[in-house]
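R.M. (postdoc): so does anyone remember the format we settled on? I'll just put the structure tokens first.
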């Protein structure tokens, strides 16, 4: 148990350092110091800095899967599960998006990973690909599949995407979350589908 806890702490401290100082600027010695161990002890858990980074990616992939499994939205492609996409509601999307925003801003590991990718996307093709997978084109494309339109997806996800950066620099984090809630409410009102009432005996044409 102690070994597993140390392994997880190494990943958390490493991704924090990568977010604050950049991946290339951080040494294994810095990571070990942040954890409170010596570098030789760190090497008992990970072979090198790249091994630490690869383990961060595996943990993010696992956590991302757990986040997706906890919601009622489809995890596959529209081609593989068209009925599930058709049955997804705006309420489901909003609930999932609120959950995602909290996750990417409040979870220490995920928030550091997001900030790392935001900075490193301009320095590395790999980081750029990961950034879009988790935060850019990936989520936008998924929302477009759910809503059936790139334009609707942009109007939904664009403000949420912007508010990640606003949240990081805000003193009042709750106010930023309130802005997101107001956006979702406004978006839902603007995109509400008005149901056409079923004809009754009085308004049926004869």
């Amino acid at each position: 148990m102690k070994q597993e806890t140390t392994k997880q702490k190494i990943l958390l401290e490493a991704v924090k350092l990568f977010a604050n100082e950049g991946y290339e600027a951080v040494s294994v010695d810095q990571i070990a110091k942040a954890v409170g161990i010596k570098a030789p002890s760190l090497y008992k858990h990970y072979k090198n800095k790249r091994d630490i980074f690869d383990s961060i990616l595996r943990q993010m992939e696992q956590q991302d899967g757990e986040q997706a499994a906890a919601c009622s939205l489809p995890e596959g492609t529209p081609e593989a599960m068209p009925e599930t996409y058709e049955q997804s509601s705006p309420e489901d999307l909003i609930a999932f998006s609120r959950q995602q925003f909290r996750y990417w801003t409040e979870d220490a590991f995920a928030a550091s990973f997001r900030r790392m990718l935001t900075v490193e996307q301009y320095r590395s093709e790999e980081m750029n690909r990961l950034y879009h997978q988790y935060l850019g084109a990936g989520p936008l494309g998924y929302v477009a599949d759910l809503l059936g339109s790139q334009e609707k997806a942009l109007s939904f996800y664009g403000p949420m995407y912007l508010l990640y950066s606003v949240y990081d620099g805000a003193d009042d984090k709750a106010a930023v979350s309130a802005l997101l809630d107001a956006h979702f409410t406004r978006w839902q009102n603007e995109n509400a589908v008005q149901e056409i009432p079923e004809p009754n005996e009085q308004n049926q044409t004869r």
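R.M.: ...and that's the designed sequence above, right after the tokens. Also worth knowing: The first helix runs from residue 2 to 21. The chain is about 70% helix and 0% strand.
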